[in-house]
Amino acid sequence: MQSLDRFPAHETRESNPGWYAIYTRHQHEKTVARLLSDKGFEIFLPIQTVARRWKDRTKELSLPLFPCYIFFWGTLQRRLEIVTTPGFHSFVGFGDQPITISQEEIQAVRQALTSGSKLEPCPFLRYGDKVRIRSGPLEGIEGILVRRKNSYRLVLSVELLEKSVAVEVDAFSVERVSDRNRVPMPHWMAANTFGPA
User: Fold this and answer.
1) Rounded (5°) CA angle 188-189-190
2) Structural domain range at position 46
């Protein structure tokens, strides 16, 4: 993964709409999202509600699921309007080009947010069995199933950002997608993963 702040123009790439990730300055996600939305861009900023405890009180805060990242749908033809937005740091991509993010990855995170399930950030994972939810509000979402304490969580990853979130699921509502997607797991993860290691 690389962050980019300069890259040559490519007309074919710039005219194809897609989901792009923007890396923002620290704690500027909401500001950049609001400013870009005011400019007419379709913005997606996944938010989680977290209880923070201080000595004298507990307060619920709305924090980004992917700190320092926001997503927008569109083309790069209005790139100047994006890069001049206060709080913008860079586009996310490879080499000298911003790269689109899979619509399926964005849709999976959106669906998990609207399902009412508890979401939380977790380490990015590439190992383990890829599974699909068979029923319920998360039906059709694919991810990696892991076990945490006495519950199971489906890890949803945005590959380009190397970031993941986990949503609590019923282990009986999942099915393995395919054995060919299975990657050998390191020993430290095998004990925490659903199914045979």
Assistant:
1) 100
2) 2-98
Q: What CATH number is associated with residue 86?
A: 3.30.70.940
Q: What is the DSSP letter of 128?
A: B
pLDDT digits (tens, 9 = 90+) for 81-90: 999 999 999 9
Closest CA to 177 of 194, 152, 159: 194
DSSP β-bridge partners for residue 118: none
Which residues make Cβ contacts (< 8 Å) with residue 148, sequence separation at least 6? Answer: 166, 192
* Distance of alpha carbon 131 from alpha carbon 46, whole angstroms: 22
Write down the pTM of the prediction: 0.67
Domain count, the chain: 2
CA angle (131, 135, 139) in 5-degree steps: 65
Backbone angles phi, psi at 167, to 5 degrees: -120, 135
- No. of helices (H) and no. of strands (E), the chain: 5, 14
More confident residue, 189 or 25: 25
Both 120 and 182 in a single domain? yes
In order of 57, 59, 62, the CA distances from 70 in angstroms are: 30, 24, 15
From 152, 158, 154, select the one nearest 143 (Cα to Cα): 154
Q: Where does residue 79 rank: exposed (0-12), middle (13-18), buried (19+ CB within 10 A)?
A: middle
List pLDDT tens digits, range 114-165.
998 888 887 675 546 788 898 888 999 999 888 877 788 889 989 889 899 9
